[in-house]
Amino acid sequence: MTTATEKEKIGAGLVKELREKSGAPMGDCLKALQESKGDIEEAFVVLRKRGMASAQKKATRSTNEGAVGTYIHAGGKIGVLLEVNCESDFVARTDDFQNLLKDISMHIAATDPKFVKPEDVTPEDLDREREIYKAQAAATGKPPAVVEKIAEGKMAKFYEEVCLLEQPFIKDQSLSIKELIAQKVGKLGENITVRRFARFKVGDPNWTVATTKLIETAAE
User: Fold this and answer.
1) In this predicted structure, what is the pLDDT of residue 79?
2) Which CATH superfamily is domain 65-118+163-211 in?
């Protein structure tokens, strides 16, 4: 239990710093800092875990509202069109939601993901990558069982490279896009999902268009 003395050490400035870092409500930031005894990095981890738990609880809620955002990279050479969904038009109009839309659009412009989430990766792409990793591992003389483990380990990295939700957020590498969204879910109290996006680059014929199937169940 946090003592009165420990609470006194957690000043408003520290709470404000954690709020700016995490985007979580002030009350949640204070509680996390109390749990971590004033350690802001540990408190940030606490908030991330709570955000993911909150997002998982709301994951089956229908997201029929939302907004479409765009991002044009400096010079007009790269453009992104993105749809992010939520449960109500009210939340879709908030600054928090609109800022999330902008951040993810900018991230897509910079990293060029090919899919929204791992479940969207095609069997053909999975088989091709897995065979490449197996061949690379086998070429080192490793036994078959070790080759399989190495290949599976590299597949996790593959998902991080090509799936938007698994990628480290370009503005904060300690957060994945999935965790960034979870923070907003925790703050706004609604399920939030990335529906689809398109990325175009001048002169590149291989533009990216990605979409995902969403769970269409009634909100609880």
Assistant:
1) 96
2) Elongation factor Ts, dimerisation domain (3.30.479.20)
